[in-house]
Amino acid sequence: MPVDGGSSPSSTGPPAARGGGPAVRHVALLVGGAVFVMWAVATLTFFAIRLIPGDPAQAILGGPGSQASQEALDQVRLDYGLDQPLLAQYLAMLGRLVTGDLGTSYALKVPVAELLGAQVGGTMLLAVCSLALAWVLALALSLWSTGRGRIATAVGQGIELFAAALPHFFLAAVLIAVFSSGLGWLPPVATGTPVGLILPVATLAVPLAGFLAQVMRESLLDAMRQPFVVSARARGESALGVRFRHTLRHAALPGISLSGWALGWLLSGAVVVETIFAMPGLGRTLLQAVTLRDIPVVTGVVLLVALVYVVMTVVTDLAMRVADPRLAGEAR
Amino acid sequence: MHAALHPLRRPRTFGLAVAALVGAVALAGCQAAEPDASDEPVAGGTLRYASGDAEPTCLDPHVGGNYPQALVATQFLESLVSLDESGEIIPWLAESWQASDDGLTWEFTLRDDVEFTDGTPFDAEAVKANVEHLKDPATQSSTGYLALGKVDRVEVVSPEVARFVLTAPDSALLESLSQPWLAIESPAGLARGMDENCQAPIGTGPFVVDGWEKQERISLVRNDDYVSPPADARHEGAAYLEAIDWRFIPDAASRYAALQAGQVDVIDNPQPDTAAAAEKSGDPTWIDAPRPGASNRIELNSGQAPFDDERVREAFIAAVDVNDGIDSLYFGTAERSYSPLSSAEALAYSDPDLFETDLDRANALLDEAGWAERDDDGTRVKEGERLVVRFPVSTNQSVPAEQSLFEQVQATAKEAGFDVQISLLDLSSWYGALFAHEYEIVSAPYTKVGPDVLRILYHSDSITPAPSGYFANLAQVNDPEIDALLTDAASTSDAAERADLYERAQALILGGHYLLPLYDQQNSFLVANSVHGARALPTVSTPTFYDAWIAD
Predict the structure, then answer these.
(1) How does B233-254 read in b/e, with b if 16+ C-beta sit within 10 Å?
(2) Alpha helix (H) ranges present in B252-307?
(3) CA nearest B263 in A: which residue?
(4) Which H/E stretch holds residue B344?
(5) C-alpha A115: how far from its chain's center?
(6) pLDDT single digits (tens) B280-327
(7) Cys-Cys link to A62, which of A174, B33, B64, B413 (CB 3.0-4.6 A)?
(8) Which fold has domain A1-332?
């Protein structure tokens, strides 16, 4: 199961804190953890990028093929502090980050914050719509196929497995071939209108729905074997009513905890989807920045995605407590 | 059970209704326009262009100077001179020109009725400011800077006459000045500084940069006061089109799908199969515009073993068979080249006889050169060394069809006992391999107007790396006779003598087995049939939409 360590249900919520102000300690732990993660990400990115061959001064001057003169290279090294020792450059970057300054793009010569600010909206819209659609598809599939006999289960599991295994680039190509080139219903590249969003969202949502449905099925099955289902049925609830009113909540739990991971996963999927459907966004920004060795932009995108992960982990933590009152009781 | 399922039905029907509605709306929007029977140009409309090239990081082609910049700059910037289809230099912003007898000064008489779109007059001062801008290290120009290598300064003789003062005669000056990387921009625009000028350079062209939403589009609107088309344009005055919507669609399949769906009118860099289909059907129109300068070729590194031995170079070229691969992988859209120069160059010289595939000859040559033994893989061995040919390939510069062709090169060379090791690299790593001389063969495109590109690629001066590590003579040709021919050709003012010198130089380069020409640097466009009058400028084959109009 593709769950990263931090967001699996068992590790969610620290054990009840003893002593004074457990809520304060809980928040302090969360914030401290978040700051640590952000620092670690910034540090790893800074040093990892320098392992890639290529001179940043060259990158600033249009890449190694640009035949920049020695004067231009020297000037750029001085301007950007690239003549400083690595540790000094690292500390300078940390200092800027602390003050909220993400630096200036090497290639586009505009502030990174401004660049990302213009692109983050489109990508978040894409990711959130995809997550929502994935939820709808996953719920529909697992509610329909669970506990309906072997055939329905086999079909459901088959669909889940197939969907989860679909690579984005392939699914995108198939969707374009069918719905744009074939049927002519939908535009093959994004138009900035809701219609243009349908294919990109579907491309991201279908594989994710496969993952989500796989996890939901397990807990749904578990829940349906519980005595409260029998008693609800005995009270005269319909099968579907039981599913919606009683077992859904159980099925949703692992789904919710997966959603934090899923949103980050969607952001990486956005690199492919935004390129294929020619949508502006963080994914394309990242791809271009990596190609151009645009270190400040790469660092900025990575930090932003890390921030999304951190925030989503907190949000899912809270959402889990709402969906499962037992967890909330534990923490208090 | 039946009753329980019922609530689900309504949404399903509703979904179908929505899908049908969406489909109907989309279909209505995509309805193809009836072709207009008349050939009378229609004014108005927005042309939607989708580029597969990288989005420029700066719209001023003086800065850096690459092909994506040239593509879009052609719409709003203009040069002093242009080229017609036969390769003759024709007037553009300059009406006429005259070189001194010693070839050290050139006087350009400029049009006196042209203004930049910010109202600044176009005059000799503007030309001077542009040359100074290009030569200023702070501009970070590379293409334009190199092209002006022999230009010392520009003197203002009068507002209409600009005098170029050279340090040495330069027979390639006019060809250099025709390139979009040396286009003339408003001095007032340049004075705004690089950051602002990069966003919207100001020129004299038929369109004006109206806005640039990064990763989304560059909006170009018509310059209503336009008066300065090149001498080979088909009409005068303002462009027919009201605007150009310049988009970036990096994925080739999506780009083609967008053209088919009517979302865009023109795409560049089509895949060979779609280009071939369009060539057959005529819908959309295929505009084939190979880039000038060098042909696409595989160069053999003669600076180190094993290709420092001419017999081994000749053996490699005799062993490799590329013709079938070119035919099948490019679906007949690419023609085999036997010249170091693009077929777009009037002075290109071909010698097909040198490139006949002959495995027996290859084997005999290798035996003679001391590579007589073979190991278990069939690779030849000499004094314990295997006959390894490292081949770094840039995935940025070689399309998938070309990469497949290189695999065929690998397979056919293996029969003669070469172990060709292809490594697919991103641009920085690829340059890194070249700078470290970790290659035996390599394919590197080079676009430039005119045969002077031969001097850049094959003169021994180009073996010495620039400060960045870059060197253009990847074959490491070091032949005093070739050097002399290329130096003389670059400085002679006599056209016939120049042609003769370049032909002799090309014959020597080909005869030395330094390279295996493949085909022209592929460059083509697919244009929807509703668009008329679009063409590629004969300078660096960028598209121009000045004469274009959309039939309604």
Answers:
(1) beeeebbbbbbbbbbbbbbbbb
(2) 252-260, 272-281
(3) A187
(4) none
(5) 20
(6) 998 899 999 999 999 999 999 999 989 999 999 999 999 999 999 999
(7) B64
(8) MetI-like fold (1.10.3720)
Q: Tally DSSP H helices, then E strands, for chain B.
A: 17, 25
Site of tokens 């068979």 = B321
For tokens 């072997």, name the residue: A150
B18-21: long-range contacts, CB 8 A cutoff, minimum separation 24: B19/A185
Rg (CA), chain B: 26
B residues 232-261 closer than 8 Å to A (CB): 247-251, 253-255, 257-258, 260-261
Q: What is the pTM of this model?
A: 0.82
Dihedral sign, CA of A180, A181, A183, A184? Answer: positive
Q: How far is CA B189 from CA B60, B197, B265, B328, in A?
A: 10, 6, 31, 49
Domain ranges in chain A? 1-332
Chain A partners within 8 Å of B25 (Cβ): 195
- From the list B23, B50, B140, the residue facing A62 with the nearest CB is B140
Six-digit token string for B493: 């003012």
Structural tokens at position A307:
């921030």
First to last CA, chain B: 57
Please give the domain boundaries of chain B with CATH numbers for all domains.
46-289+524-550 (3.40.190.10), 296-519 (3.10.105.10)
Running DSSP on this structure, what letter comes out for residue B339?
S
Q: Do B428 and A54 touch (CB under 8 A)?
A: yes
Strand partners, B267: B50, B526
- The complex's ipTM works out to 0.74
Do residues B193 and B177 touch, judged by C-beta distance below 8 A? Answer: no
- Gap between the Cα atoms of B423 and A10, Å rounded: 45
Closest-CA residue of chain B to A111:
B195
Q: Residue B500 — pLDDT band, cuts 50, 70, 90?
A: very high
Query: A104 at the B interface (CB within 8 A)?
Result: no
CB atoms A281 and B396 under 8 Å? no
